[in-house]
Amino acid sequence: MSQHADRTDVTPAEPVETPAERTHRFLELGAALVVGLAATATAFAAYESGSLGGDAIAGYSEANNLTS
Q: Which residue ranges does the record annotate as region Disordered (predicted)?
């Protein structure tokens, strides 16, 4: 009978990450950061437009009328 047949404390070697997998992981992280920044910028823009009360649209219309 083998002494090593019942060993449960042996952990398998961790898989080696290939360069393509590493690049993919960093691209996913970058994409998540870009999406997060875009969501934050969108929320901030919505907050600012709400606090201005639509004055930006009125100003745009007035400027458009002056240049036409």
A: 1-22
Separation between Cα atoms, residue 4 and residue 38, nearest integer Å: 55
CB burial of 43-57 (b: ≥16 within 10 Å; e: otherwise) equals eeeeeeeeeeeeeee
Nearest of 45, 44, 67, 40 to residue 56 by alpha carbon: 45
Of 5-14, 20-29, 56-65, the least confident: 5-14
Cα(30)–Cα(21) distance, integer angstroms: 14
